[in-house]
Amino acid sequence: MTIIIDAMGGDNAPVEILKGAAQAVREYGVSIIAVGNAQKIEKAVRDNNLDLSDITVVNATEEISMCDEPTAAIRHKKDSSMVVGLRMLAEGKGDAFVSAGSTGALLAGATLIVKRLKGVKRPAIGTVIPGANHPFLLLDSGANVECRPEMLDAFATMGSVYMEKVLGVRDPKVALVNNGAEETKGTPNYVAAHALLKENKNIHFAGNVEPKDIPQGDVDVVVCDGFTGNVILKLTEGLAKMLVGQIKGVFLKNIWTKLAFLAVKSGMKDFKKKLDADEYGGALMMGVQHPVIKAHGSSNAKAFKNAIRQAKACVEGNVVRTMADKLAQTLSDEAEG
To answer: Potential cystine with 20: which of 71, 86, 129, 305 (Cβ 3.0-4.6 Å)?
Structure first.
């Protein structure tokens, strides 16, 4: 299996990206093609004593920055690490692509270069988030500010496939974000989406889910438009960081609380790990013809390594092909209905 990576994307590129790639080669046994400025990569290797002996470097002279207009960058920066890597993926020179670069540019590139699956109006970003009971998948978590009902229906189908094939959840429960559990709640768009999801034979639809119930992790796939999803994602990240900080402050209050911490140290370590976004690595661009993983812009080596692990799982689980088949079945069922 060959994973193509964008060596120049992200706040900590190329050093942390290359470190994570080297770790992935050792731990997961994958082949890596690192696309980026060869001179900068060589300097990073020398300065940080990195071992890239099992990684192939493909030179790309340009870089896409977070400030670049996404579509214009994809169209005009033809020799950027992101465009070259996506083109290689589309040409079958690798099995998946991973980047910590601009989300907008990666979405535009995946759409224009890798192309969409049939039945997908626009790709969505699926982000795995820790819940009280188990992790859940949130989509769309930022790609599409507004979504028509049929788009939300497609997201539900793809999200269900992802949770089953990548996270091993059998018959995953799918829910639609809303301000109440009743079928008639929400905007006309969401009422119409509820009706479509209810008739979708390719998912286990559990109805609406209120935001206050999402963190429990009682449902496996949480479906919404990208604006709502991004608000949920950022609020969740902020609350997790605040909770860890507040708990740390309680235990550092005095000598007695510090002693009490020793009794729960292992439990606190597990708690912190559970809330660590680096454990999940990245988000799959759902709805394109090959696996494209968006790693967090601030990814360190651990996070990027786990994003590569996620890409490997998508390839091994034949996720994209299964999504295509399920989407085709959903379209056929709707046409018959």
So the answer is: 305
